[in-house]
Amino acid sequence: xxxxxxxxxxxxxxxxxxxxxTKYKKNRRDFFKKSLDxxxxxxxxxxxxxxxxxxxxxxLEAVNIKLNNLKKPYKIVQLSDIHIGGLINQKxxxxxxxxxxxxxxxxxxxxxxxxxxxxxxxxxALDELKNIKSIYGTYFIVGNHEYFHDVSQIISxxxxxxxxxxxxxxxxxxxxxxxxxxxGVYDRxxxxxxxxxxxxxxxxxxxxxxxxxxxxxxxxxxIKDLEHELENTKDIDLILSGHTHGGQIFPFNFLVKLExxxxxxxxxxxxxxxxxxxxxxxFWGPPMRLxxxxxxxxxxxx
Length: 302
Fold this sequence. Notes:
36% of the residues lie in helices and 19% in strands. By secondary structure, the protein is α/β, with parallel strands linked by helices. The chain has two domains: 1-55; 59-301, Purple Acid Phosphatase, chain A, domain 2. The strands form two sheets. A six-stranded mixed β-sheet has the order 1-12-2-3-4-5, covered by helices on one side. Strands 6-7-8-9-11-10 form a six-stranded mixed β-sheet. The longest helix is centred in the N-terminal third of the chain and has 31 residues, at 26-56. It holds the Pfam family Metallophos. One of its GO terms (cellular component) is membrane.
């Protein structure tokens, strides 16, 4: 809110300086100045109101993705960057679960940054996730924020809810030879943390050959790490990520692009691998979004 107001105020001041240098008479300059003040105030109020409304209202993003060798269609519902803590509370999660259950997913995946507070404060909200309904279950990978709040405890508690935490391993979704590998790695923040480090080679060893592989990796930037750790990404058909929030508040999306290769949406990274970046189901910091709505992603694989 402060950033948006500050940006609009700067534009207001620049225009005001320009008005003072015009050749208009004083009364005419005063009229334009008053009109500018009223317009600027209206824009500030409207922009902030819209940004807060965007944060509260979660949009559905439907995406169709073709995977080679997938013999049966599947529906994945992806959540990401919920950031339980503060304004993201038990009621928010309960309402979110109700929205997810309407979608009748084959599986639900949560791609990191689920918890952003001390675990004791998050448990009541996390408990609501037990009510998610899908055919093949709910799966989770840690994001960078879990490392700040005792990642080991969070992993243990989420597993206790019946939600499978993928820790450099994979599960097979669907009937034999008609499904796909769902793999997941720790977040690349683990390199700095010194433990819970992503290991793609260990992860892929657990995957069934001749079936497509969907990899959960919190940060889109991890796709760059893969280029150093693997000869190629031919064994990874699709990566599902989050982390970026789509920039959350314009124009931060341009700053995010300096750090991450992709900010939002579906991209064909190379001949073998596609990547989809969820803009985040919750928010971080101020309860505002501008130019990047909160989302629940419905991924239809075929």
